[in-house]
Amino acid sequence: MTTETNGAEIIDGKLLAEDVVARVKTATGDLLSATGIQPGIAVIIVGEDPASQVYVASKGRKARECGFHSVQHTLDAETSEADLLALIGKLNNDAAIHGILVQLPLPGHIDEGRIIQAIAPEKDVDGFHYINVGKLGTGALDSAFVPCTPAGCMIMIERRLGHDLSGLSAVVVGRSNIVGKPMANLLLAANATVTIAHSRTRDLPALARTADILVAAVGRPQMIRGDWIKPGATVIDVGINRIAAPEKGEGKTRLVGDVNFDEAVKIAGAITPVPGGVGPMTIAMLMANTLVAACRKAGVNPPKF
Ligand code: GUN
């Protein structure tokens, strides 16, 4: 699952994601033949944000590839909060749907918090509902849904360092509810010694250099430099930033992470690339969460990912 270079191992997120998806497919077939239940996912998108449309289309494609029943609800940008709540209510009561995902961000007139809390916790495959946040925070991982991006990061970390991170120090740069906070809780549950850093942290480079595991989730292109990295560290780059790439021609762009990869790869022990690192894992974990939701509903033990 990794490529050796003179410097760091490059952690291949595409290959790891394919492995997760293959296991989801197998388990989906097993669930269907044992119980007649086919995992079902509903994805709701409100408005025409081009990036969101791309993400939602690829979630639908991957769900069908897994053998799921997959439905997409495309609502126009003026949809009222009440109408969106009514649709969520219907999906909460739909026995063919095991996972519900409302693509964020939502238009400004809709209260995102209210929408997320309206999703039945047992169908909240994003892991954003307070019930799931609380279960993760208290270590009740067996019945929680963990947000997909940090869940995917954790699989990458475990493949390199194992399931017990005792004695290792982890620094998570970024304190979002979607990535930074759940990531810190997962690392803590695996016995790492965890620090959450953010824009108000003093001397971030010095703190980052203490990290055996460094997770970057700030959304600032190439902010983390090579000399911020402890030699041999495992570096997980969650950032996906589009920047100008004049070297590719006028008006061209390219994707980069929050880590300066070319510098970091010389110092780290292992590092995720952008693209091809954390991104593919996120969607694979959404499939895993949906399968788990269907297994729980069926009273079948879900596989561990
Ligand atoms: N928009 C960007 N990332 C996410 C995500 O993980 N879940 C949802 N629902 N919307 C997103």
Task: List its traits.
single chain; 305 residues; alpha/beta; Rossmann fold; 2 domains; seven-stranded mixed beta sheet; three-stranded parallel beta sheet; 12 strands; 40% helix; binds guanine
Report on this model:
The protein has 305 residues and is an alpha/beta fold. The chain has two domains: 35-121, Leucine Dehydrogenase, chain A, domain 1 (Rossmann fold); 146-278, NAD(P)-binding Rossmann-like Domain (Rossmann fold), CATH 3.40.50.720. 40% of the residues lie in helices and 17% in strands. The chain has ten helices and twelve strands. A hairpin with an 8-residue loop joins β10 (241-244) and β11. The chain is globular and about 50 Å long. The mean pLDDT is 97. It binds guanine. Residues 101-104, 126, 148, 178 line the site of guanine (GUN).
Oligomer: single chain
Helix content: 25-40%
Number of helices: 10
Compute the gyration radius: what is it?
19 Å
Strand proportion: 15-25%
Can you tell me the overall shape?
A: globular
Number of domains: 2
Q: Strands across the major sheet, in which order?
A: 1-2-12-9-8-6-7
CATH level-two architecture of the largest domain: 3-Layer(aba) Sandwich
Mean pLDDT across residues: 97
Segments where pLDDT lies below 50 for 5+ residues?
Answer: none
Number of strands: 12
CATH homologous superfamily heading of the largest domain: NAD(P)-binding Rossmann-like Domain
In CATH terms, what is the fold-level topology of the largest domain?
A: Rossmann fold
The helix-and-strand class reads alpha/beta
Order of helices and strands: EEHEHEHEHHHEHEHEEEEHEH
Which sheet architecture does the biggest sheet show? 7 strands, mixed
Measure the end-to-end span.
15 Å
What is bound: which ligands?
guanine
Which CATH class of the largest domain applies here? Alpha Beta
